[in-house]
Design a protein that fits this description.
This protein is α+β, with helices and mostly antiparallel strands.
Length: about 210
């Protein structure tokens, strides 16, 4: 008898895309969106669910028993997983790859691999193929994570030479995110690891 594949699940807080994909991998064959009511926790918005499912079909990860044109009024698709992946596919509603979040993930992985680095090292190491990261973007991300306590300074900056850092707080596979509020949120821990002081927020008000 063939051995069943080992099932792995992502840890930490999951995005809606990741929660949907995790549910898809559990259901696997002959399921509808109604089945998500049981396995999808926390639930996601209906529009988000339908859009992502459409994208997964278009990208070749799922197949439907019948095309939409053959469904009766009120009838819904029955899905089957045909292309598995541990990572939740990053696809649009049309099935095209999307790059949102890829740059941050690439920088976080580069920090973990390099150990010690400056922002230019991160920009160079994290740039691959269509993912190109400028030194300015890498510098901004490094500075925010330094504020949040992920690094220690190995060598301070000097004129024309950027500071070098060492990663001392690797919390998991998911990259800490810098939010629109300029806070650092770590999905591996499920909490904010740095928030701007009240005065800093006030100083940014025009």
């Amino acid at each position: 008898m063939a051995r069943k594949p080992i099932e792995h699940e992502r840890v930490g807080m999951l995005t809606p895309r990741e929660r949907i994909w995790q549910a898809v991998r559990k259901l696997r064959t002959g399921f509808t969106t109604k089945d998500f009511d049981v396995v999808l926790r926390p639930i996601v918005k209906k529009d988000t669910l339908n859009s992502y499912m459409t994208g997964l079909v278009a990208a070749g990860y799922l197949k439907t028993e019948r095309p939409a044109s053959e469904l009766s009024v009120g009838e819904i698709h029955v899905y089957t997983l045909i292309k598995d992946s541990f990572e939740a596919p990053r696809v649009s509603k049309t099935g095209k790859p999307v790059s949102q979040g890829v740059a941050t993930l690439a920088m976080w992985r580069a920090m973990h691999v390099l150990g010690t680095f400056d922002h230019r090292d991160i920009a160079k190491s994290a740039s691959l193929g269509t993912t190109q990261i400028s030194p300015a973007v890498a510098k901004a991300y490094v500075l925010q994570l330094h504020k949040a306590g992920y690094f220690r300074v190995v060598k301070p900056s000097s004129p024309g030479v950027p500071a070098r850092y060492q990663l001392v707080r690797y919390t998991g596979a998911e990259p800490p995110a810098v939010t629109s509020r300029k806070c650092v949120f770590d999905r591996n821990l499920g909490k904010f690891t740095w928030e701007a002081a009240e005065q800093e927020v006030c100083d940014d008000i025009a």
